[in-house]
Specification:
By secondary structure, the protein is mainly β. The protein has one domain. It contains one helix and twelve strands, in the order αββββββββββββ. Strands 1-2-3-4-5-9-10 form a seven-stranded antiparallel sheet. Strands 6, 7, 8, 11 and 12 form a five-stranded antiparallel sheet that branches. Strand 7 and strand 8 form a beta hairpin. The protein is rod-shaped. The relative contact order is 0.15.
Amino acid sequence: MPALQTVRPLAYGKRALVVSARGEQNSEDARIGGMKNTGNRFSATYIDQFFNKKVGIALGYAHNESPYQTLKKESWGYPTCSACDTTADQSLLITGGEKDAVDSSVLKRDGYMGVLEYRPTDNLRMTFDTYHSDFDELQRIARLEYLLAWGANNLEEGYTTDDEFVTSGTFTGVKTVMENYVNQRKSKLDAFGWNTVYDVNDEWSLTADLSTSKADRTDIQVESTAGTGASGSGATDTVNFSQEGFGLTISQARSIIPTSTPSS
């Protein structure tokens, strides 16, 4: 298996400067205010040799800022229509409840590396390398959660069916919970290495290799929930639904007013 190591500037043997940059854009718009759907990546590398190629250096930097957007639909069920207040055929299957969420996230990472190589003689070479990385990921989720058939809500007349499912309709009296999540992860990584090789002769060599690394990570998670009232009180909602393949499309939800729940 080949060894993974940083570039050796003296073995590289020539000066080099490489710079690259590119942008990216999600096909989906940012789902949550304050987030964005564009990102960028760029990097730079410099390699050179000095003092009659007895000393070599390599410096590198890379930046990555990458967003992503997701839509999540989690249906509960399907129970039969006997779970809801309706005159529909009790053997038909219908969605029991739903979680609908949007997720906007961005990942930022900055990496730095440096190599110092020293070869005073043909049989002695020393290499010191270092690496530092900063990582920051922010995820924001907005979600609605509600019971439909399993909430004993009323399925209004005018619904449509196929041979087995209620495919579209309107529920009234729906209690909805609004949830917001913020997840942030920050981490730092530092690594250092020192390698010395002394060639005693063509067959024997002595090697000393020292290395150390350290990682720090901080995770912050914030969650809030809100509704229209505690313990079943407060306004209810009218929800129109339409079954499409394996998911549901909610076309209307009203009267969601964030309130605090009093403690008992």
